[in-house]
Design brief:
Blueprint: E1 3-10, H1 14-26, E2 37-43, E3 48-55, H2 58-69, E4 79-87
Antiparallel strand pairs: 1-3, 1-4, 2-3
C-alpha cells in the first residue's frame, strides 16, 4: 500500500510558491530521494500550503521522510507546522 507524507506550511506567499515551482521543475530531487508523486496545494489568501508526497513502499517513505526532514528551512515553502503519515486508501484520475 502506498503511503503519503502530508506536510502543512504557514507563511507561504504567492511569490514563494512560484519560486518553489520553478526550483522543483528545473532542479533534480535530493540525492538518494526515492521515486515519489508530489502534489502541493496552496491557499494564497491564507498563505498556507499542503505538500503531499506519495511513496509506493514503506522503505521509500522512510528514506524520503529522512531526506525531507533534514532539509534546511530555506528550502521549504514556509514555516512547517505539521508532518503526518497516511495510508493512501484510494487514488483516482479521470
Amino acid at each position: 500500500m502506498a503511503l503519503a507524507r502530508v506536510v502543512s506550511f504557514d507563511g507561504v506567499s504567492k511569490d514563494r510558491m512560484k519560486e518553489m515551482e520553478r526550483e522543483m521543475s528545473e532542479g533534480d530531487p535530493p540525492e538518494g530521494f526515492p521515486p515519489a508523486e508530489i502534489v502541493v496545494l496552496h491557499d494564497p489568501k491564507a498563505e498556507t500550503s499542503l505538500a503531499i508526497v506519495i511513496f509506493e513502499t514503506e522503505d521509500d517513505y522512510k528514506r524520503g521522510d529522512e531526506i525531507l526532514s533534514a532539509m534546511p528551512t530555506g528550502d521549504t515553502p514556509g514555516k512547517r507546522t505539521s508532518v503526518n503519515k497516511y495510508d493512501v486508501a484510494m487514488r483516482m484520475k479521470s
